[in-house]
Design goal:
By secondary structure, the protein is of the alpha/beta class. It has 2 domains: about 325 residues, TIM Barrel; about 70 residues, no CATH class. Helix content is about 45%, strand content about 10%. Strands 6-5-4-3-2-1-7-8-9 form a 9-stranded mixed beta sheet. The chain has a two-stranded antiparallel sheet with strand order 10-11. The longest helix has 18 residues. The relative contact order is 0.10. The C terminus is likely disordered. The chain binds S-adenosylmethionine (SAM) and iron/sulfur cluster (SF4) (2 copies). S-adenosylmethionine binds next to strand 3, strand 4 and strand 5. S-adenosylmethionine (SAM) binds next to strand 3, strand 4 and strand 5.
């Protein structure tokens, strides 16, 4: 039994996609693809039952390398997860709507819309096969469906930044916020991890790289090699994806982690037949983690902050890429722990920054917060702010989140150890 241990589950709802983004294995994998299919509701119910008996399930993401809105029974899947009082997270390219009314009635906790442009000529480069006008129409329909259903679903537009799409980001932000959606801009990276490792080590055994892959990598605003150089000095021998996440394909087979694609090589075994403790043990000894941690990719996968913003902006300027002031002055780039920010139900960071804004003592103790450096403030929130400080009533419910954010930030900066 895992007792009080927390795990975030990824359970793939649909094992394929309607698009072929060049930075995703659906668009770039060379060789045999993973099996295609739909997650059965009865299987999900069994997975939830076992998971709840083994650990504290902090959330379930019904997506990994596929498009969840292709699933004809997606509202039912969401309901199965949330009947266990576990938040359900979705992420979609929203080029299709599925049964959006039923989905909003099922009220998933969070719905991410992944985008990479506002004009078709921009969008189609990086969301290959996608139609941005259809996406925008569907965004409006989603906003209306949420309103009609009285749903509390948090809808967040995630803009993936490349060298070629920076000029559209402001327009998309305006469009999204006018619809009442949250907006987040993050630096796109190359996926899956096998391709990144193949590229860094010049090792075709890990994954085959095509000429298009090299162009995709060149098109990233955040340059891979320089980023890895930064993370190599901060590299750590633990990984939140390995230690606190469980990733399953649509058939219920455990995968090494959600950043890895090749199921033939990285399937751990059927979740329903293996105790969670054994699954975790098997993951610990996988050679891939060793290779990944050597490069610091385990941190690169989840963290984006000021030092990476600086690196990407230098790269943008070097390439003379068209970028608005909002990107160059980092206004549009909030430091983020990718894939974790939605764990804060009412936005833990926002509440903490609100407290900070009104407190002279905190401002003089942690002046670096103004530059987006939150590590020491997170530590304060976890150790004092949520326990003995007068701000305790506001911050207490986010204690676990501050702890995680603090620890993860520590992991990226050796000086903090
Ligand atoms: C592979 S997608 C699958 C779900 C869905 N098809 C979508 O695109 O949102 C899983 C997550 O990866 C993110 N993502 C996609 N391409 C990315 C990239 N190049 N860099 C970083 N994140 C990316 C998406 O925003 C999404 O939340
Ligand atoms: S990133 Fe999402 S939309 Fe793009 S190909 Fe991959 S799964 Fe499909
Ligand atoms: S170390 Fe790398 S490959 Fe292993 S679980 Fe973490 S992110 Fe995945």
């Amino acid at each position: 039994m895992q007792g009080e241990l927390n795990f975030l589950f990824t359970v793939e709802a649909v094992g394929f996609c309607n698009l072929e983004c060049p930075s995703c294995p659906n668009g770039n994998w060379i060789g045999e693809r993973n099996p295609r299919g739909f997650l059965q509701p009865s299987l999900l119910a069994k997975i939830m039952e076992k998971a709840r008996s083994e650990c504290n399930v902090t959330g379930v993401c019904l997506f990994n390398w596929g498009e969840p809105l292709l699933h004809p029974k997606l509202p039912e899947l969401v309901a199965i997860v949330q009947n266990y009082d576990v938040p359900c997270f979705l992420s979609s390219n929203l080029n299709l709507l599925g049964n959006i009314n039923a989905l909003m009635e099922a009220n998933p906790h969070t719905f991410i819309i992944s985008v990479s442009g506002f004009k078709q000529a921009t969008y189609n480069n990086t969301h290959k096969g996608g139609n941005v006008e259809r996406l925008k129409k569907n965004m409006v329909a989603l906003a209306e469906a949420r309103l009609r259903a009285g749903s509390t679903t948090r809808i967040q537009v995630r803009y993936l930044l490349y060298l070629t799409n920076l000029q559209d980001v402001v327009e998309m932000k305006r469009f999204a916020t006018d619809l009442g959606f949250e907006f987040q801009a993050i630096w796109a990276w190359m996926m899956p991890l096998e391709k990144v490792i193949a590229y860094l080590n010049d090792d075709p055994n890990e994954a085959k790289l095509s000429y298009e892959d090299l162009l995709t990598i060149k098109n990233l605003a955040l340059p891979v090699k320089e980023t890895v150089r930064i993370f190599q000095q901060y590299r750590i021998r633990s990984c939140i994806m390995r230690d606190e996440h469980v990733t399953l394909d649509y058939m219920g087979n455990v995968q090494l982690c959600c950043m890895i694609y090749d199921a033939k090589r990285f399937t751990i075994g059927p979740y329903l037949s293996i105790p969670l403790t054994d699954i975790q043990e098997r993951k610990q000894t996988n050679y891939m983690c060793e290779r990944c941690m050597d490069k610091g990719l385990n941190v690169y996968c989840v963290y984006q902050g000021p030092e990476l913003n600086r690196l990407a902006i230098e790269n943008i300027l070097r390439h003379d890429a068209k970028a608005p002031g909002e990107v160059l002055n980092q206004e549009i780039l909030k430091p983020t722990i990718v894939g974790m920010d939605w764990l804060s139900k009412d936005d833990a960071l926002k509440v903490l920054l609100d407290v900070y804004k009104y407190r002279k003592d905190l401002k003089s103790a942690f002046p670096e917060v103004a530059d987006g450096e939150y590590r020491r403030l997170m530590k304060w929130a976890y150790t004092s702010g949520t326990t003995i400080d007068t701000a305790k009533p506001y911050l207490r419910k986010f204690r676990n989140w501050y702890r995680k954010a603090w620890i993860k930030d520590i992991l990226t900066r050796p000086s903090a150890r």
